[in-house]
């Protein structure tokens, strides 16, 4: 069982390090500002205290939230960490009385999010 922590202390370099490990742009400039602007975040550390999972929900904090940047260290995948992370975020969303949580994902992750209770639906994205 994985114990997901809500709003755990995170050093400025830890999420960019994890982003790099999963193959994403580091975005060092986003931290710590992202943690100050999102509704809440969740994380999991391994026995060596390394951040191995991270994700957050942002929005107005009223009815709707947007789940973002769900990431799991490549060495800890297929062990239930991602499921625990998403479930932890959704549990906190319920606690904060968010009624709707949306997420955008690549087609290859559709089944993962479906298992988490998400319903696939069409949407759009604007990007500069």
TrEMBL record:
The reply on keyword Lyase is no
- PROSITE patterns per the record? GNAT
Q: Which Pfam families match?
A: Acetyltransf_1
Q: Is Iron included in the keywords of this UniProt record?
A: no
What name goes with this protein?
A: GNAT family N-acetyltransferase
Going by the UniProt record, its keywords in alphabetical order are:
Acyltransferase, Transferase
Q: Ranges for the N-acetyltransferase domain?
A: 5-128
């Amino acid at each position: 069982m994985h114990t997901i922590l809500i709003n755990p202390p995170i050093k400025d370099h830890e999420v960019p390090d994890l982003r790099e490990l999963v193959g994403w742009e580091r975005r060092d400039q986003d931290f710590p500002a992202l943690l100050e602007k999102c509704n809440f975040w969740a994380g999991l550390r391994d026995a060596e205290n390394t951040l191995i999972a991270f994700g957050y929900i942002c929005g107005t904090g009223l009815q709707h939230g947007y789940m973002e940047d769900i990431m799991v260290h490549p060495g800890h995948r297929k062990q239930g960490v991602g499921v625990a992370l998403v479930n932890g975020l959704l549990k906190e969303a319920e606690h904060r009385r968010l009624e709707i949580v949306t997420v955008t994902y690549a087609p290859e992750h559709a089944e993962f999010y479906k298992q988490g209770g998400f319903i696939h639906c069409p949407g759009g994205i604007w990007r500069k």
